Amino acid sequence: ILNVEQSPQSLHVQEGDSTNFTCSFPSSNFYALHWYRWETAKSPEALFVMTLNGDEKKKGRISATLNTKEGYSYLYIKGSQPEDSATYLCALRGGSNYKLTFGKGTLLTVNP
Amino acid sequence: ETGVTQTPRHLVMGMTNKKSLKCEQHLGHNAMYWYKQSAKKPLELMFVYNFKEQTENNSVPSRFSPECPNSSHLFLHLHTLQPEDSALYLCASSPSQAGTNGELFFGEGSRLTVL
Q1: How far is CA A108 from CA A8, A10, A12, A86, in A?
Q2: Measured between CB atoms, does B40 come within 8 Å of chain A?
Q3: How confident is the model at residue B56 (pLDDT cuts 50, 70, 90)?
Q4: Is the CB of B100 inside 8 Å of chain A's CB atoms?
Q5: Residue A98: is its pLDDT beyond 60?
Q6: Which listed residue, of A17, A37, A73, A105, carries a Cα 20 to 30 Å from B103's Cα?
Q7: Any chain B CB within 8 A of the CB of A76?
Q8: pLDDT tens profile A73-84
């Protein structure tokens, strides 16, 4: 069983603040790292799929980095807005059967 | 709108009832998944179907019975459930089970309450 850890569990920031959170995972048998954004009462939506060590991806104010050798990925949000409030999930595709294993998520609340 | 539709959105059932959850995707994908989201737990994979064949059963109790009649439809048949089965059940699809990207497209989930 792969262990995917996300920290912090929850985070409250003010509008305009920049923030980041972490996803840690076992570095062996790595295949891909996914980030999803899950707003309340909606469906989880893919943000990034990252496969290469050192990869950095960006979508608007959100970016992510990947370090497969040490087993972590960071998600950054620049200038947080209330509409960024959501749970951010990371998921590791790895192991012997390439199953996607999710972390518990980081719940971000952006106060206006 | 992700192209994955789940019905019903909410379901309340007794332990002796038989009910089904339905998932439909309009994305032309070949892989479909059932996940379970319980409180304070990560998303747990239940079943995977790839080209209508079940390729993964993650030690799910037999009171949950999946069915995939074609690549666009996925059902989860529920029978004699327990209160601890109350959870959000999410359906997802992807172009195929494996693959370089393999990002999942999720439905909004079916919230199940077992009394």
Answers
A1: 9, 6, 6, 5
A2: yes
A3: confident
A4: yes
A5: yes
A6: A17
A7: no
A8: 999 999 999 999
For residues A8-20, average pLDDT: 97
Give the sheet arrangement for strand A19-24, strand by strand. A5-7, A19-24, A72-77, A62-67, A56-59
Whether omega for the bond prior to residue A8 falls within 30 degrees of 0, making it cis, is yes
* Six token digits for residue B37: 């989201």
Q: What percent of chain A has pLDDT over 70?
A: 96
CA distance B48 to B56: 5
Strands (E) in A25-98, as ranges, are 30-38, 45-50, 56-59, 62-67, 72-77, 86-94
Q: Count Cα atoms within 13 angstroms, Cβ side, for B45.
A: 25
Note whether B56 contacts A103, CB cutoff 8 Å: no
- Chain A neighbors of B100, CB-CB under 8 A: 32, 51
